[in-house]
Design a protein that fits this description.
The longest helix has 9 residues, at 120-128. The two termini are 52 Å apart. By secondary structure, the protein is mainly beta. Strand 34 and strand 35 (432-434) form a beta hairpin. It contains three helices and 45 strands. It has three domains: 1-216, Immunoglobulin-like (Sandwich), CATH 2.60.40.1120; 236-398, Immunoglobulin-like (Sandwich), CATH 2.60.40.10; 405-583, Jelly Rolls.
Length: 587
Amino acid sequence: MNSQLLKKFVLPLSLPLVASFFACSDNPSNSGNNLAGGPGSITTNGIVARVGGVPVSNASVSLHQVDYTVPEAKEEVMVVAVATTVTDSVGRFALTVPDSGEYRMTVSYDGSAYTKIVSHESYQALDSLEGVVDLSAIATLTGVADIPEGSKAVWVGVVGTDVLVRSDSNGVFFIPAIPANDTLQLYFMDDGYEEDLGRESVFLQPYEQVQYNYKTPVEIDSSVTDSSEVVADSLPKVSVLLQNGSPAAYATVALRSLDSVGEIRFVRSFMVVADKYADENGRFDMEWPKSGDYRLTVTSGSQSYSRVYSAEELKDVDSITLTTSVSYSSNVTLTADEDFAWVGVYGLDELVKTDASGAYVLPALPANDSLKVYFVHNDGTKPFVDWTVKTSKVSKSEKPSVLLYDFEEDDTRWYMSVDTLWKGSSFYKNGKADSSHKIADYLEADSSRGSTVFHGKYSVAFDPYAWVLLGTQFKETLNLSDLDSIAFYAKGDGNIRVTLENWENYDKGTKAASSRISLDSSWKRIVIKPSELCIDNDEKKDCKSTWERVKNGVRQIHFFPGCKDNCYLSPKNEVYVDDVKLYGVLF
């Protein structure tokens, strides 16, 4: 089998967070080659598996004979290692390596992997030192191979691992997870998994995504002239070109509805799973749908094309030029009891996991596009929030934001209230005390803002426990440790303070409040940083610890209009509020 490199590339990423196929399987590998926990001669001290210098629990660990191949082709195995043991709560694992021979040890965890050939002696030396293995990001490989006569496809595996995939009828195959930083061998088998078709070596870098042509070159007799006629309708309709104008041989092609999402809990660090592949000349045909809107995506190595078409427009597509893909990194707000969330893009198959702080990287996206990103709780099945991302020509990282309320219409999640001790505070409507507290009754058009705003008249009793408020309770208790700032517009004849709280009652709850901010008759944009949320439950000011005690479990945001000096003598003040927005968080 003749190996010919088509193209090779590395995606630029700003965070070490690419996720791919991973982890444990309930299907044990062939017992004759499964050596973890098998017979041996020593009791191990254990080795620690790390990602980014941090020990990881529940990483999959396997040990196979160095020349191991999957014994039967029952199904595709796209994980790096079918776990025969896993790391413990501190990232430690132990294997028993036989006294003779060489073996491939593989450790994988959430899109990162480590693999190395070990002997009894080399493993014992590492183990006796209580050593560590540092996992690096996996690589991916797309290839095309010869299909032998009588077969409909070929099987391709990685020697010494559990990886095994099946090509399509053109010989095109995709391996979504290959350990980086070590020389590995691919093996090729016929469709019946009986004939060994050869082996090829491969060495890939972390994050690398390559395309290889393993087909035997066809020798063309230049003395023979092909005089046969080519039927135009039999040729693929769409030509795919790389950025330099050359054909994108065996490019991946996929068509998705605009609301399609990736398969939750099946992590993919690439844009799409192929519906079909272009041929060796970069051409493909496809039966287009008759109605609706769709996203057509074509990828080849580090380049891609993705665009939304109507069914009518798809019929006219005849040529596509790819451009360099980009990555995008940001963060989403997790609930207080979550350690990650799923992140995907509508119309693509790409799906990654956040880290424990909500940070994520979408490693492969089309450049210069507007994409709708969705987020799913780690135990959920449906998105809980969306976020529109506008990619550019280069990879980028940005902070999200969420518009909590623009006051354009009634929102039942928002409420008004007065102190529950009935000290005499009240909101007023049409000159009378109003106990109904319906937000809709306090919305009015404001010509200077050019929008609808909240306008409330109120009085606050002369008592330290007296208050009126406007606010909302979040659907879930949130971890707002990434909060950059709270911004809103306000005016009035009193003052206002903002609190973030986890409040149930006076005896149970925490809060972090700002100082009171004086208002006047002109609209002003007020920005409050978490470092300014210094006032605690007891009205004590402690800017070092107040926010720290609250930020990991926030349930409410409240706005407390107040009065200036001697305003308690006046029965009514007024406050206007508009466009409440949080920066650095998304939920």
